[in-house]
Design brief:
This protein is of the alpha/beta class and about 300 residues long. The chain has helices at about 20, 40-45, 65-85, 100-115, 140-145, 160-165, 170-175, 175-190, 195, 210-215, 215-225, 250-260, 280-285, 295-305; strands at about 10-15, 50-55, 90-95, 95, 120-125, 125, 130, 150-155, 200-205, 245, 265-270. It has one domain: Alpha-Beta Barrel (TIM Barrel). Helices cover about 40% and strands about 10% of the residues. Helix 4 runs parallel beside helix 5 (about 140-145). The chain is globular, with a radius of gyration of 19 Å. The mean pLDDT is about 95.
Amino acid sequence: MGGRPIRTIDIHAHVIVPEAAALMGVQTAPNDPSLIAGRRFETMDEWGIDMQALSINANWYGVSDRDVAAKMMQIQNEKLAELCAKYPDRFVAFASVALQFPDLAAVQLEEGVKKYSLRGAAIGGHVNGDELSAPKFDPFWKKAEELGCLIFMHPQGIPEMEKRLAGKGGLTNVIGNPLETTIFLEHLIFEGTLDRFPGLKICAAHGGGYLPSYAARSDYGCNRFPDACKSLKKRPTEYLRQLYFDSMVFTPEGLRHLVAETGVSQIMIGTDYPFPWSTTTVDHVLNTAGLSDADKRAILGENAARLLKIT
């Protein structure tokens, strides 16, 4: 691109560790595409993906036994580290952390980064209904800021919305996932988490949900309800420039708009592998009008390489 090689890095790619899943009574089929196997590499090559940043969906927040949660996270992080060591040109990974125990999660994050050479952590959008902007989660956010690592947030669903989203259309995913991401980000803004920890590096899956497309309403909301915003250090839309997003917005116009709202430096490609959402992720960037060669290089890999410390 512009006479320079591009290393494409997928920020949003899932994996399963069967040994950890078994502790929750979940059995993994031998042909599950979330496993690391030859077909994954073939698909990556077909899609033009050089590297994946592996993450495990945080479905363990309901584990109430601290020792069991600690064992699960240790197994997952050890296995992730082994995969990255075995395939260093293809994988980096995010640590798993037990955020239902925030102090433990902070320890697991530090261990993941310093002991296992993982590049941050993957988290859900809430913990058993508690917003991650609650003060009890500050030890985790403080550690993430201290380490300077990336936190990848992936929604886990909104249980209290299941009745409203039931029926046709797969709405629990199609609407529910980006809605949860939007709620997560808005709470971090309005409850002051991003002010308390301005050095945080957070990447929100699925293009940040609905927030980048309707963020100006938050600014106008501060005009309408000034008491709700008086503790903020800047306008709500300005926080978009300190957050990061994957490119899963599906159309050239969607990507153009995301760039306009957040800045090209805040966006990285994401496929949601192995789920069939984005088989043309690289082409999506290459074919979006108005992006310079430098813009395309940044989104396809340079931003992720910087944030994930890939040399």
